[in-house]
Specification:
- The protein is of the alpha+beta class and 728 residues long.
- It has 24 helices and 18 strands.
- Helix 3 (62-90) runs antiparallel to helix 5 (99-126).
């Protein structure tokens, strides 16, 4: 059933292949787990394997094997129905009457995976070249199975990290299968070797068709691209479901550093974190990112640029102090965050965090991460905002915070709003814009799709409805068009009235966007322009209340373990500040490179492949002896042929291998092989012999280029599964 020369590897390949097939079966079952039985499907899977092994062992032809495979489950069904009949006669009643129905409920759906598993195993055991086709079928199956997973809440896995890990393991498993099958296939009996041994020649059409099967490894890069597309589709669906602001990360969920306006969003009530506050605050806005940059096509985005005021965004490994800009009319607010379903590296804080203290988590904790934040929160009175002082932004900062992409319609509207309000000072104009948006526009989760692609213009001048990002975008740009520095902030809105023992629960639907406007010596002041009036004909239930039972349980857990929440003492405390800054810059650089995966992965792949394929020629240049030079050049020739699936078989000598290929392709390989054998085994190998060997290699290369087109040679070079086999 698998090559006798490689029984262990063949058995490993068989086990790995079927593990991947079972993975597909289980994930397909998860879609219908309420209707199907995994135990029954597993039994069908095992039965398919057994029947495939038996039909291959008895060397049945395909149609006879197919007939036996199809009859086997129905014969088993008939036998079981006979047992059910006898059981019903012995003990009549509803339980025995329903045995037929209960069996068929799982039997009929199990037929499809049974047939697929049998087919894959029959052909893989009978024709090892089918393994390459199987990889393509598996790629198609996994895309079909996972296609529906494009929402914020994954239905098949508890979290995106598990979803991504499953896809990665599947992909690595397929790579390993193809690596093993390349070697197994070269040693397997493909019905050609008997003809060669008998002095016959291989049928060129069969050889050509079979050789192209070895290039189905190209399915793997295609699968990788499709999986990235699938994850990208999931990411877009996640952003829409996370109030248009959140996205999945490796660990949990987090806010996006780029926010664009969606035509429709959904809200999720997943519990994200618990929050505890000590200190006054009339409103609670927990900021995650500052979005300073603006692009008319992309939206607002986070700018990490030296000279711009950008707050820390990552929780440090140890207590850390942050710069306090010294804005006036600020007071301290202490916060504690207990993460449940948010990326544990995310730093959230009210207004200006000046100190962050990560706290050690306790055993059995319900929380992913716990830390404290000390913030300077504005308490400026209206009269102070009307006369904010004279502290100015730098020219570079002002350029960023007043950029509105030159949209004349936005500026005209801003002038119209402030003129109608008859205000000239900065604070008055900001309030006029905020109140105009609140009073003249509606809140909607379905703003609609703009015909011209300009969602903001569609909101301001046509539909008049949108969610929080629309209002924040509009206010920030209206202010900027009047030369008032403004930026968008994203995070969570927390209702101060929904408090239990100074704790607040924060859910995903509370993800929010608002505006921060610069007031000189008072710094950045928060304004929320989002309307609370629903669009006509739309109804939403914003359940900002808490689950008292769940919340009470979590609060009780925190209070019970309060004494165990101590500041984390990490080795980072002993590091010099310069080294820590270097580490942060390194992480930032790696993050930037990770965003270019679509360029870096192919480049890395080509670099490694080029190094492997050109290694013999590099060794030829470095070798000093004539024999070693010929040995390396010959290995390079074998590598070229192996890339085109013309590898040497396990039981062939080099001469037999050369004769076989010359009979099919006339590659002049036999003469080149004889020259190589002379270089390796002859008692003497003079300069004349060396030059003669180089001449034979030149003849081989000329025939090689005539036989295989440039496209085929390129595909052979890109084939990572080529193995030249042993040389001697």
């Amino acid at each position: 059933m698998w090559p006798k020369s490689r029984p262990t590897r063949g058995l490993l390949l068989f086990a790995l292949r079927n593990l991947l097939l079972y993975f597909l079966l289980v994930n397909a079952y998860l879609h219908l787990k309420e209707e199907l039985s995994l135990l029954f499907l597993s039994m069908a899977f095992a039965a398919a394997l057994l029947v495939a092994l038996v039909t291959v062992a008895f060397r049945l032809r395909f149609y006879a094997a197919l007939t036996a495979a199809l009859l086997s489950p129905f014969l088993l069904r008939g036998l079981l129905f006979l047992i059910f009949t006898l059981q019903r006669r012995a003990a009549p009643g509803p339980d025995t009457d329903f045995l037929y129905f209960l069996f068929d409920k799982d039997f009929i759906p199990a037929l499809l995976p049974y047939v697929l598993i049998w087919t894959f195993n029959f052909w893989s055991l009978r024709r090892p070249a089918f393994l390459y086709l199987e990889a393509g079928f598996n790629a198609l199956l996994i895309l079909i199975i996972f296609w529906s997973q494009a929402r914020y809440r994954i239905t098949l896995y508890p979290h995106p990290s598990l979803f991504a890990a499953a896809l990665l393991l599947f992909l690595l498993g397929e790579v390993l299968v193809l690596l093993l099958s390349a070697d197994i296939g070269s040693a397997a009996d493909l019905s050609v070797r008997p003809r060669i041994a008998a002095g016959g020649s291989d049928w060129p059409g069969r050889t050509e068709a079979r050789s192209w099967l070895h290039f189905l490894w190209l399915v793997l890069p295609l699968l990788l691209v499709l999986l990235f597309f699938l994850l990208g589709r999931f990411n877009q669906g996640a952003v829409r479901r996370g109030s248009g602001l959140m996205k999945p990360t490796l660990f949990r969920f987090d806010f996006s550093e780029l926010v664009k306006l969606e035509s429709e969003i959904e809200l999720s009530d997943d519990l994200v974190l618990l929050f505890r506050k000590q200190g006054p605050a009339e409103r609670i806005l927990l900021r995650r990112f500052i979005l300073s940059g603006y692009d008319a096509d992309r939206g607002f985005y986070r700018v990490s640029k030296r000279g711009l005021e950008d707050l820390p965004v990552t929780v440090p490994d140890a207590p850390e102090e942050f710069h306090d800009p010294g804005y006036a009319s600020r007071f301290d607010v202490r916060q504690e965050y207990f993460f449940i379903n948010l990326d544990p590296t995310s730093l959230i804080g009210m207004n200006y965090p000046t100190r962050v203290i990560p706290l050690s988590n306790y055993e059995g904790s319900s929380f992913q991460r716990i830390y404290q934040v000390f913030s300077r929160v504005s308490g400026a009175a209206p009269e102070e905002l009307e006369n904010p002082g004279s502290r100015q932004l730098s020219r570079e900062q002002r350029r960023y915070y007043t950029d509105y992409a030159g949209d004349d319609k936005v500026r005209d509207l801003a002038v119209e709003i402030t003129a109608a309000a008859e205000v000239t000072d900065r604070y008055g104009r900001v309030l006029a814009i905020r109140d105009y948006l609140k009073e003249n526009y509606f809140y909607s989760l379905k703003p609609g799709l703009a015909e011209d692609g300009n969602q903001l213009s569609h909101f301001l001048f046509r539909s008049g409805k949108g969610y929080c990002s629309y209002f924040a975008f509009a206010m920030a740009l209206l202010c900027r068009s009047l030369d008032i520095p403004a930026r968008v902030a994203v995070g969570f809105y927390v209702d101060p009235s929904l408090e239990v023992m100074n704790f607040y629960e924060v859910r995903a639907q509370q993800a929010h966007a608002w505006v921060e406007v610069y007031f000189d010596s008072l710094g950045w002041i928060e304004f929320d322009p989002t309307s609370t009036t629903l669009a006509p004909g739309e109804e939403y239930t914003f359940e900002l209340g808490f689950d008292i039972e769940k919340l009470s349980s979590l609060i009780e857990e925190i209070l019970r373990n309060q004494h165990r929440l101590r500041p984390e003492e990490a080795e980072a405390l002993a590091l010099k500040p310069q080294l820590r800054r270097f580490g942060r810059e390194l992480v930032r650089g790696l993050t930037f490179l990770a965003r270019l995966w679509y360029l870096l992965l192919p480049a890395f792949y080509l670099a490694v492949l080029t190094a492997l394929k050109t290694a013999p020629y590099l060794a030829f240049r470095l070798a000093r002896g004539r024999r070693d030079k010929i040995r390396h050049l010959y290995r390079g020739s074998l590598l070229r042929l192996a890339g085109l699936s013309r590898a040497r078989r396990g039981d062939e000598s080099l001469s037999e291998y050369a004769v076989r290929l010359d009979e099919v392709h006339d590659l002049k390989l036999h003469a080149w092989t004889e020259a190589y054998l002379m270089a390796v085994f002859a008692a003497g190998f003079a300069e004349a012999d060396y030059q003669a060997a180089l001449s034979e290699r030149t003849r081989f290369l000329t025939a090689f280029r005539k036989t295989f087109s440039p496209l085929k040679r390129l595909a052979g070079f890109l084939n990572p599964l080529s193995s030249p086999g042993r040389e001697g």
